[in-house]
Amino acid sequence: MIKKLLKISLVLAAFTGWNSAIAQDTIKMGALATLEGAFTVLGEDGMRGVEMALEEFGYEAGGKKVELITGSSDASPDSALRAARKLVEQDGVSVLVGPLSGSEGLALKDYAKTQPDVTFVNGVSAAQDTTLRDPAENFFRFTTDGAQWMAGLGEYAYNEKGYRKLAVLAEDYSFPYTQVFGFLEPFCRLGGQAPIDARFWVPIGNKDFSSVIAALPDDVDAIYVALGGADAINFLTQYGQAGGELPLIGGSITVDQTVLGSEGRIRDHVVGMPSSGPISDTWDDPRWQAFTDQYRKQFPDGFPSPSLFAHGYYISTKAALLALNEVNGDVSDGGKKMRAALSSLSFETPTGMVSLDERRQAIADMFLTEVTVDGNGNLVNKTISVTGQVSQTLGLPYQEFLNYGPVSRENPRCE
Amino acid sequence: MQRFLNKHPTWAVFILLAAALLAWLVFSVWPEWLIDLIGRKKTFVHTLINGLTLGGLYFLVASGFTLIFGLMRNVNLAHGTMYLLGAYIGYEVAEFSNNWFLGLIAAFIAVGLSGMLMQLFVFRRMEGDDLRQTLVTIAISIIAADLMLAIWTGTTYQFTPPEWLFGSVTLPIVSVIKSSGEAVYLKYPLYRLAVLVLSMIVGIALWLFLNRTRAGMMIRAGVNDREMLSASGVNVQLVFMLVFAVGAGLAGLAGVVGGTALSIAPGEDIRYLLASLVVVIVGGLGSITGAAIGALIIGLAEQFGLAYFPTYGVVITFLIMVMVLAIRPQGIMGK
Amino acid sequence: MKTQHGISEQLLAKGSPSLWLLLAFLLIYPAISNDFFTFQIGAYSLILGTISLSLMMLAGYGGMVSLAQLTVAGLAGYLMAIFGENSVGVMGFGWPWWVTSVWAIFLAALFSAFIGAISVRTEGIYTIMITLAIAVAFYFFVRQNYVLFNGWTGYAGIEPPTILGIYWRNPVPFYFLSLAVAALFCGAVVYCSRSTFGLALQAIRDNPRRMRSLGYNVALHRVIAYFLSGIIAATAGVLLVWFNGRISPGSVSVGVVIDILVIAVLGGLRHPIGPFIGAIAFVLLENFAIDLIDRERFNTVIGLVFLLVVLYSPDGLLGLWGKIRMRMMNSGKTGPNETRGEIGSKSADSIETS
Questions:
Q1: CA triplet B192, B258, B66: central angle to 5 degrees?
Q2: How far is C31 from chain B (nearest CA, A)?
Q3: How far apart (Å, rounded) are the C-alpha atoms in residues A371 and A383?
Q4: Domains of chain C
Q5: What are the residues facing B169 on neighbouring strands?
Q6: Is C251 in Cβ contact with A16 (below 8 Å)?
Q7: What is the model's pLDDT at position C296?
Q8: Which of A97, B50, B310, C67 is most buried when burial is the number of CB atoms within 10 A of its CB?
Q9: Could you tell me where the beta strands, DSSP code E, fall in A245-306?
Q10: Does the pLDDT of residue C343 top 50, yes or no?
Q11: C308 or B174: which carries more pLDDT confidence?
């Protein structure tokens, strides 16, 4: 026992001594993504985005070497917090890029407040409250939130498609609430309807939608569906099997490549389905084309086209590196100068200009898309239009936007 | 039947009345006041059939679980893992051979074999120590879940069932009468009806196997008294391996069937393990009939919960479980 | 079996030098490690160990393997957020911390007694299934319920109090707080195991039928055991929610529920110190697996370790240590006569469940 204890203390001493031994000419950057659990594939693509940005800068910023340390979570806030603590308190990173999912983002924002000397740059987590209410001084988000992603879709459904009354089917947690809010707010302002009793909130991970499909009302013009991944695939297949005929409108992750690329019988029902989000697979802009070419070259075994996770982590990492360049890699002041540089940073991304508002939340372009079949017979999202420079408050003054209240099952009421 | 009538006359009348009410609800055209009260008939009947078919699927999974427990007192908490493994193997074979039925058979055989190996190399070594056996199954399920995630990643897979099983059929049940006097009949996905039929076939086959074959006789004897069975010269280990193979194989088979009706993704192992747990706790551990009754109750509760109170749908099944435990701790058909 | 038990007992017997050394090490530990090791490894291991201790008490002395111990801890955490303060804007009655924590621990322990009341009517292996089902039901319920538990998002901003000018989430104070709680309950469990109640409980574990015919109320003893273990788990749950500052359905999901069982079995179910050894091993693996193996296969590693322990050392790491000690002693004293330490004789050591 004594020997064992001695051994442990030796190991401890080795660990604790480690920190001071690091030379001052490297900057430690942490990257946190879901590298375990059901979202592993998405987290891995996020990490590809981080590597792309670092590669672009030759793993250097402001003349100093950048050392990347990765952390892994399983999409639960507890695990994200644990991994972040290790990166910050044990590995001693001065910049942390991440996390991936909404509730992780909220947890990290709270943690950021207890670590004022570390700069946090969000990965792709898209919960509204991470930056809207009670933001942290050192938490920056160069990606957009779930409500921003819906920009232009509500107007499109009302004006172009002529829908007046909708049913809503979504998963029962904060991200779909945010998406439903972003979609319904303009739709209802124009005069559309989405009655509370025609909104169906299913538990996340629900696989059997047959009874929900049977309960969907007939007297609506279309169904707005905000489901992700496996849930979306299950619903789309079963909706077809049950002979459903109403047109569908998709949330940002309902018809992304993880769903469209799946094997199965969803094809017949999704063609023509409109949606919107921060990227569009087939945008013919040279900046996006260059980005996808680089992605394919660097990661032959990656996705056919970068996902919004690779895109988001790429932008976030690049923002951090640009800010480090600006201050010549000097983070000896606890990162104060770097954060000042980040606040005023505005740069060109593969999807257009990105800048921050006063709560350190990105303002960026959004894409309105529609599912079509491309030349090779694959399902892709065709770009219909680009909505320029969407802000978190959807163009409203901050205080007025806050009056809507936090997102929930019944916000907006829309009757 | 006669005996039941004589023994529990009130219950018999109650059941008959409930059956008559149900038949009326299914086949009649609903009057307005009823629609105002509980919504459209389409929703109700669909949910009812959905509950039956889901119950069928749960029976497929839980019957293997309860069979293994009944004989070996082994709570196999890796049962959900066998479901998921069967689904993945079946998917690979079905994709490769372009034949869904080959996938089904391959899943049954492959998972059955792996169950046999588990019995041979792991459980045999710790016979009679049911806690350690259970702990080992937990360890196996942790490792297997992680390895399956490594091989098949987090992507969702869906089977392509044979063409003639896809699509929906019209049921001889009137949904509503339109104002023009034309009757609208209900449509229902054919594949899900096939699941129900298949589970009934499996149930009957299991019953025949246990009651009409020599091997089945030995198994039943083993359930009653293991020591006596081995004393009478039967190779108990062989019987155990056979039961484990059939039980695990059924889970694998259910994986393909369930993966076709719904889909396959990580996390399904836990879902179906829990479904099996609740089904056998409600129905009574070790009883095949109990598994059938439990599966029916849980399937119906889950679907009605989802359609009528989606928020707390999942919790209803557990409430049923707690109620059964409070009133009849050994389960409905438990001894 | 007796001898092995005796050795681990002797290891920590009153006044034994190992015990004093261990205590001394635990007391100076914060001085020789950095904040991360004090807080994230040290305090976290102690909290997880305390939750596992409540399972060890039930399983080791009562023969009841309950998977709902983390659920009890989680409920206590939720109650802290509901009756105390949180930053989410749901519930949060703002009671003073000492009222809230006592109330939360009491309610959670009652919940534990309720779980006990449901599951003690059935015997043996049924317990593990029923408690697993209850744990998962609780997870689904808090995930769907927004009025009380704030659904998927859960609660954040749950702060430990500032007493005597010390903010108790700072690494060193929090470490000592966790250490004090762990030591207190460790001692309480040892004391309880030698009390009349503890002895009756162990006798019930070994032969419930005999105890029943001797006139003991078997069910009542078991429910009380659940209540007592609930106090331990709930206190650790309060620490855990202070540690994280937040709680959400993910904190009480199946994976974490199973982790507690893994920790307890890994360390050993025979002595109260076992769960803490298991917790240290688990937390170290959890934090540093990513530095050791390239791809994130943490679960495979922990699963394999767990499997090996269950297969070859049913008394966990503690039992392994005892075995090695005994083999060394045996070979020193009696030479060749050392077969007792062999793997083959292990099955008798495992705890009994019926």
A1: 110
A2: 37
A3: 9
A4: 2-348 (1.10.3470)
A5: B188
A6: no
A7: 60
A8: A97
A9: 248-250, 274-277
A10: no
A11: C308
Angle between helices C298-312 and C274-292 (to 10 degrees): 140
Measured in angstroms, the CA of A265 and the nearest CA of chain C are apart by 30
Q: Which residues contact B230 (CB under 8 A, 6 or more apart)?
A: B236
Which two structure tokens, joined as six digits, stand for C111? 């919940």
Percentage above 90 pLDDT, chain A: 44
The 3-class secondary structure across B62-111, one letter per residue, is: HHHHHHHHHHHCCCCCCHHHHHHHHHHHHHHHHHHHCCHHHHHHHHHHHH
Per DSSP (E only), the strands in A338-399 are: 346-349, 352-356, 362-373, 379-390
What is the rounded distance in angstroms from the CA atom of residue A33 to the CA atom of residue A36? 9
Decide if A172 and C144 are in contact by the 8 Å CB cutoff.
yes
**CB B66 within 8 Å of CB B287:** yes
Report d(CA A400, CA A392) in Å as an integer: 12
The pLDDT of residue C57 = 93
User: Could you give the angle at which helices B236-261 and B214-224 cross, rounded to 10 degrees?
Assistant: 100
Beta strands (DSSP E) in chain C are 155-156, 162-163, 166-167, 246-247
| pLDDT of the residue at C141 | 86
Q: What Å distances lie between residue C156 and A75, A107, A285, B254, C244, CA to CA?
A: 16, 8, 42, 41, 9
* pLDDT surpassing 70 at residue C9: no
**Tokens encoding B331:** 């389960």
From residue A281, alpha-carbon distances to A152, A260, A347, B137, C330 in Å are 18, 12, 21, 44, 71
Cβ atoms of A306 and A295 closer than 8 Å: yes
Per the CB < 8 A criterion, the answer to whether A42 and A309 are in contact is yes
State the DSSP code for B335. -
In the structure, what pLDDT confidence band is assigned to residue A75 with cuts at 50, 70 and 90? confident
Structure tokens belonging to residue B75: 């709570």
Cα–Cα nearest to A128, from A196, A181, A189: A181
ipTM: 0.81
Phi then psi for residue B26, to 5 deg, are: -80, -40
Residue A67, Cβ neighbours under 10 Å: how many? 15
CA distances from C122 to B172, B220, B284, B327, C224 (A): 46, 23, 12, 12, 16
- List CB contacts (< 8 A) between C303 and chain B: 139-140, 142-143, 146
Q: Is the dihedral of CA B69, B74, B75, B80 positive or negative?
A: negative
Partner chains of B (3+ C-beta pairs under 8 Å): A, C
Q: How many CB atoms lie within 10 A of CB B179?
A: 6
- Residue A4 pLDDT grade (very low, low, confident, very high; cuts 50, 70, 90): very low
pLDDT at B144 over 90: yes
Whether the CB-CB separation of B52 and B59 falls below 8 Å is answered with no
Identity (one letter) of the amino acid at C188? A
Chains adjacent to A (≥3 CB pairs closer than 8 angstroms) = B, C
Size of chain A in residues: 415
List, edge to edge, every strand of the sheet that includes A64-72: A60-61, A64-72, A26-33, A95-97, A119-121, A139-140
CA dihedral C187, C192, C194, C196 (to 10 degrees): 160
Which pLDDT band holds residue B46 (cuts at 50, 70, 90)? confident
* Structure tokens, B79: 């049962």
Token readout for C62 is 């009562």
Q: Write the burial class of residue A10 (CB in 10 Å: 0-12 exposed, 13-18 middle, 19+ buried).
A: exposed
Contacts of A146 in chain C (CB under 8 A): none
The closest CB to that of B274, out of C133, C141, C354, belongs to C133
- CA nearest to C265, candidates C239, C302, C234, C240: C302
Phi, psi angles (nearest 5°) of residue B321: -60, -45
